[in-house]
């Protein structure tokens, strides 16, 4: 005996979302065709439930890169094009893993710098434009990092201009590397305050301490614990692939 069709509210309840979310999923093309009963009500199946589960899993924040890649993934699956859907899913997983590698390299660079293993070869003092060119950053970046308390630059006693030297160069390399890896300035500042207080070991752990959600924007919280977030995103990318596998099995079994 066939199980009764599922209602919009059944799908919403199963996913823990509002019924309007399921209606939006339908309007955005995240479901295969949904038949209607004689009363005009939608008759969802367990296949639709799993398609909704894929959409909810794939498009929940946070995510990396171009959201259109993930939207296309969900739409391909809804239309039964699992080859394209899986290709998109594995592309996304590869992208997340590339970000993890970049971040882990940045954290290793930080730890080596903190214990004095990375030394500058130049002892030349430079004004801000020279320093920016030497370090391949912009003058605005240097001013912004100083304004946010990440670095204090000594001044030339003769004219009051900033003078960057080896100590500043090393610190800026660390800041630049962590910023490029996705960490927020507040997380980097917190870590540098620990370094300045004489703590040189396990500084990466300081970068992973989130602040109170009530005090900051959500995206800043994510950037405070970037490495942990990336590992969670990797797990979610793998879960997306598993969900696609479940949909493929359901389609072949029907």
TrEMBL record:
InterPro entries: DNA-bd_dom_put_sf, MerR-type_HTH_dom, MerR_fam
Domain HTH merR-type: 125-194
Species for this entry: Ktedonosporobacter rubrisoli
UniProt key word Repeat: no
Protein name according to UniProt: MerR family transcriptional regulator
GO MF annotation terms: DNA binding; DNA-binding transcription factor activity
Keyword terms of this UniProt record: DNA-binding
Gene3D superfamilies referenced in this protein's UniProt entry, alphabetically: 1.10.1660.10
Entry keyword DNA-binding: yes
PANTHER family given in the database record: HTH MERR-TYPE DOMAIN-CONTAINING PROTEIN, REDOX-CYCLING DRUG-SENSING TRANSCRIPTIONAL ACTIVATOR SOXR
Classification of source organism: Bacteria, Bacillati, Chloroflexota, Ktedonobacteria, Ktedonobacterales
